[in-house]
Amino acid sequence: MVVQRMQSRLLSFDVNRYSTPLLRQLQEKARKRTSMQAFTETAADALDELDLGPKAKRVVRRPPPLLTIYVRQETEKAYNAVFMEELTVESFKEAVSLRYGTPIKSVRKIEIQTNSGSIEKVDDNTIHGFDEEDTFTIVLNYNKVEGTCDILLSSVR
């Protein structure tokens, strides 16, 4: 403490040159932790001081999908789940493009083949008519010249 006061007053004070063995011993003792401090401080306290403790993770919970349907291509053996968070054609396009790796913008039209064999354009009302866990076969017709994809769904009984 005496040395610190002297250092603050004199900028060019050489501690090693002018300090006595007693002052050096006091400085060394001040640098070392006492045994009482060692027992009272824990590793958690030290981490808190250093701000190195684990950070709390933010839990992101997605809402459950409104509708889940299962689709497969003719060449596939297993069905793939398609999750839709909204009952819209855009949500269906997004889900199918994620599942099959096609760009969303390349999907030109979506059609469904009814039980009578006629082909209808899929709109939001058609998707609202889908039941939970309906199964469909899906045909992805790619037009490489135009860079588009047409989707045809067929209901599986």
From TrEMBL:
<dbReference type="GO" id="GO:0006357">
    <property type="term" value="P:regulation of transcription by RNA polymerase II"/>
</dbReference>
<dbReference type="Pfam" id="PF25416">
    <property type="entry name" value="GRHL1_C"/>
</dbReference>
<feature type="domain" description="GRHL1/CP2 C-terminal">
    <location>
        <begin position="65"/>
        <end position="154"/>
    </location>
</feature>
<protein>
    <recommendedName>
        <fullName>GRHL1/CP2 C-terminal domain-containing protein</fullName>
    </recommendedName>
</protein>
<dbReference type="GO" id="GO:0003700">
    <property type="term" value="F:DNA-binding transcription factor activity"/>
</dbReference>
<dbReference type="InterPro" id="IPR057520">
    <property type="entry name" value="GRHL1/CP2_C"/>
</dbReference>
<dbReference type="InterPro" id="IPR040167">
    <property type="entry name" value="TF_CP2-like"/>
</dbReference>
